[in-house]
Design goal:
The chain has 6 helices and 13 strands. It has 298 residues and is an alpha/beta fold.
């Protein structure tokens, strides 16, 4: 039977950032060195989506062979429960964790702006801090930095083993775009938005809530620390000890209007057609129906 030709879709079910990628190099960055990754290539996007969203089928864990770099050499079956739901870090998957995220850019209107993002993961109830991020983002815009805080916070929480998350941020734009209420029309946000939606599929339970800035002071302080050039790469605990194999610098490849993730594991948030009778909202905030998988609390 002749081999199929055409573009390939690389589906990562278990890896640093689950999603569908348009090249092996992008896929490899998510699975290389990751403990028990699950990924596979397909010739159609539909097949790739089915592979990621499958929950009642054995997970195919592909191991890369050094002799055939770029190809998978063997597969082994895993239990029925998807590996994306298995604990992979020091956090208790039975507990709920709170994620506070923020981002900002000084001199936002200038190309010489300095941006940074921050995220803090704490145990719900005790408020015990279990992980934090402060990453300098260079010339990111303010909105890109806000997105980066959410994306890295979610990915870090998943990497550390959290399966239940309550996320809080003071950016209405990020909360409502990720929740599906507002459209994403700015090219520089599309890749970050896709990556945020993909991260949502990693959790058993997740909510996203907008809060006033005064209730987001810890994440704001981390973002300012990053803008001051005093941040770090990776995620650290309260004592500054690096946790897990998680590199926050991967976000720097995502905000240049070239999405890393081609599509999200769940049904994509397609833009809604604006009614000609209604005036479009300014600030990239047109409304569309929120996906059922993402709960947004006002």
């Amino acid at each position: 039977m002749p081999r199929k030709k055409g573009p390939k879709y690389y589906a990562v079910r278990v890896g640093r950032v689950p999603g569908i990628y348009d090249s092996w190099e992008k896929c490899k960055r998510q699975v290389d060195g990751y403990s028990k990754p699950a990924f596979k290539s397909f010739f159609s996007q539909a097949e790739a989506e089915d592979f990621i969203s499958a929950s009642n089928q054995p997970v195919q864990v592909a191991a890369e062979s050094t002799a055939t770099k770029g190809k998978t050499s063997k597969t082994t079956s895993a239990p029925n429960k998807t590996a994306a739901q298995q604990p992979s870090g020091p956090l208790d998957p039975a507990l709920t964790y709170c994620l506070e995220f923020d981002g900002g850019a000084r001199d936002n209107a200038s190309t010489s702006r300095l941006a940074g993002c921050g995220a803090l993961i704490a145990e719900q109830g005790s408020d015990a801090e279990v992980g934090k991020i402060a990453l300098h983002l260079g010339s990111y815009t303010n909105n890109q930095a806000e997105y980066a805080g959410l994306v890295l916070g979610l990915e870090a929480a998943h990497c550390l083993g959290a399966r239940k998350i309550k996320a809080f941020g003071d950016s209405k734009l990020v909360v409502n775009q990720v929740g599906g209420k507002w459209q994403v029309k700015e090219p520089g946000l599309m890749g970050l938005h896709a990556r945020a939606v993909a991260a949502y599929g990693c959790f058993e339970s997740i909510t996203l809530q907008h809060v006033l800035r005064e209730f987001n002071k810890r994440a704001d302080a981390l973002a300012n620390l990053a803008m001051d050039g005093k941040g770090w790469t990776g995620v650290v605990d309260a004592q500054g000890k690096r946790l897990a194999d998680f590199d926050t610098r991967s976000i720097l490849e995502t905000a240049d209007a070239r999405p890393v993730v081609v599509d999200a594991p769940k049904r994509p948030l397609g833009p809604a057609k604006a009614s000609p009778r209604k005036r479009q909202r300014t600030g990239d905030r047109s409304r569309t129906s929120p996906p059922s998988a993402i709960r947004v609390q006002e």
